[in-house]
Amino acid sequence: MRGVTILPMSTMTGPDFGARTTAILGHLDQTGQRKGLQVIDGPMGPSITLREFGEVACFCSNNYLGLANDPQVVEAGIEGLRKYGAGTASVRFICGTLACHEALEARIASLHDQEASYTFTSCWNANEAIFATLCEPGDLIISDALNHASIIDGVRLASVIKKGVHKTVYRHSDFDHLRERLEAAKANPDVSGQIWLVTDGVFSMEGDIADLRTLRSICDEYDAKLIVDDSHGTGVMGPTGRGTHEHWGMSGREIDLFTSTLGKALGGGAGGYMAGSKEMIDLMIQRGRPTLFSNALPATVACSADKAIEILMNEPARVAKLRDNVAYARDGIRDAGFEVLESPTAILPIIVHDTAKAIAMSKRLLELGVFVIGFGYPVVPEGEARLRCQISAAHEKSHLDTFLEKLKVLKTEF
Ligand SMILES: *Cc1c(COP(=O)(O)O)cnc(C)c1O
Hints:
Elements: H1 9-12, H2 17-30, E1 47-50, E2 54-58, H3 71-84, H4 92-96, H5 99-111, E3 116-120, H6 123-134, E4 140-144, H7 149-161, E5 166-170, H8 175-186, E6 195-200, H9 212-221, E7 224-229, H10 244-247, E8 257-261, E9 272-276, H11 278-287, H12 289-292, H13 299-314, H14 316-335, E10 347-353, H15 355-367, E11 370-371, E12 373-375, E13 385-390, H16 397-413
Parallel strand pairs: 2-11, 4-5, 4-6, 6-7, 7-8
Antiparallel strand pairs: 1-2, 3-9, 8-9, 10-13, 12-13
This protein binds pyridoxal-5'-phosphate (PLP).
C-alpha cells in the first residue's frame, strides 16, 4: 500500500514507545482506518472460506489466472519439496543455487524475451536491490508519482546508500511534466551519469496502464533506460499475457529491465524477479546486497512458479477467459449503477468517493457473501475512496453473476 497514515505530529512523536503506539492505533480505530486480517481456512480460489464469514466469492485476490490452487502448480511445489528439501540454508553465491532456480530463471527470461533473469524472495526485495545496485553517483532515477511503494522505497534507499544518486518524480502519466524533469536534468551538471525511468506497467489502485510506447520513445530521446515493474500486468496484459508491453504491441526487448512478482498471476506463492540484459543480471549477482546476504527463493516456490509460467505460456486461453470475464464484470458493474474506471486491466475500481462509505460497503458485501476490499484515504487521495474489484480467469459465470447481483443489492442500500 502506498502512503503513510497522516497523524498529527504530536501523537506520533514522544520518547515512550508504548504511549505513542497506543495513540497511533487509537487514532486508526477512531477514524475507521484500522485493518483487520481475514483468516482463510483453505486455498485461494474463486470462492474461499473465511473463518468469520464462511464461504464467500473472492473478488480481491491477485490470483488473476487461477493458478494459486491449480493441481499442476501444487503438485510441482510438492515435487520440488521432495526433490530439493526445504532449502539450502545458504545465500545464492555460497551454496544456495539449485537447479530449479536456474530452470525458473531461464523460463522467466524467455517469458519476457530477455537475455537473463534473477529471482528474489519478493518483488519488493527485487525493487530494493535494483536501484541501489545498478545506479551510481551522477545517475538520475525518474519515477511516476503513482509507482508502487516498493519502487519508492527502493529509489530512496539508492539515494541514501550512494550519495550522488539523484531522484525525481513526475506527475502520474504526465509526459509534459516528465519532459520538464528530463530537461532540468540535462541542464544540471550534477546529473552526469545514466538516467533511469521507472514505472509500474499496471497501476495497482487505478488499474490504468503506463503508455510504454511513448515512454520508450522519450527514453530513447534522452538516452534513458526504461524499467517496468509489471507485477499486475504479467500474466494479464496482452494477447498471450506477456505483460503491458505486449498490450502495446511491443517486444520484451524494447524494455530495458522488467521487475515482476511470482506472488500474483504466476502462482500466487511469493517471490519476485528482474529480467534484463546479461550484464545487469551479472552485476546483481556480484553486487546486490539482498542477493549476497539473504537466502534464495525456496525450492517449493521456485518449482510451483516455474509450472505456473509454463501453463501461462502453453495456455493463452486462460488469458482470453480473464479478458472475457473482465468485460462481463465491467458491463455488469455499470448496469448495477456504479461508476467504474475505464481500463484494459483486471483491476476494476468502483469509485464511491467517501472512505467510511467504502469500508461500510465492503463490510456489507462480506455479509452478502462477496469479498471485496474498500480502499480510502490515505491509500488513495481524499474523496476518491473505492472498492477495488479484481477479476480472475478462475471465476465462472456463476461467481460473476453472484458478484453483480450483490452489487445491485448494495446499490439499493447505499
Ligand atoms: C504487488 C507488487 C509488488 C510487490 O510484490 P511482492 O512479490 O509481493 O513483494 C511490487 N510491485 C508492484 C507494482 C506490485 O503491484
